[in-house]
Amino acid sequence: MKIGILGVGHLAEYLVQGAAGVEFVLSPRSGDKAARLAETYRCAVAESNQAVVDQCEMVLVCLPAATGLAILEGVQFRDGQSVCSAMAGASWDQLSAAVAPAEAFCAMMPGFANAFSAGPSLLYPGDAEWEAFLALLGPVHRFADGTAFETAAVFGAMSGASIFLLRHLVRWYERQGLDAVVARALVAETFRGNAEVLLQADAGLDEIAVGVTTPGGITEQLVGVLDQCGALAAWDEAMDGVLARMVPGR
Fold this sequence. Notes:
Low-confidence stretches: none
CATH architecture of the largest domain: 3-Layer(aba) Sandwich
Radius of gyration: 21 Å
Number of domains: 2
């Protein structure tokens, strides 16, 4: 598998790290990072964005969302190519127009977790070649409906925000005097364990919540304070705002 990457920022670095065995051709943007990836993972670095596209049938777009479409419009694609965009907020219609006559696909992934082949990816519409690539980076969720994909894509922001939540919890334990290494492991292992409960338990979410909450106990106390402060409801408001930004009118 040979894939060209337009835009060599943090996301591209994570994907290169996670997709062992894939031959990558990188755009020269962020020259130092491209050179480091070329040395570490034996990637090739092209002279320009156009040179990347000229060499590859599959092109992965990791350009900044604010300028990415304009950059793509300055590149000449050809019939038979397949272009997958990981740019948040760029719709399939916009991407398709920018890369015509190539075939367009949209993806979303958390990034850092993909470096460890542990992060889920979304793909719209489905495609066997892109699914095979994304499967190297973690679970793949294929969408046939654009609206469902757009809604699910908010998880890109949710994933990043969850890192801030985890960091906040770790630092609370540190302030109470717990060793930093122990605090980090405790928080990470707790959330990983609860994630496995959601993935593996047959019980519904409400049943699970009841099962972990003893009346009058410490979980009920903590959740009650969070509810009083609006901490849980704030996630709804924040995610609504991200969806509205990514999909105006939603």
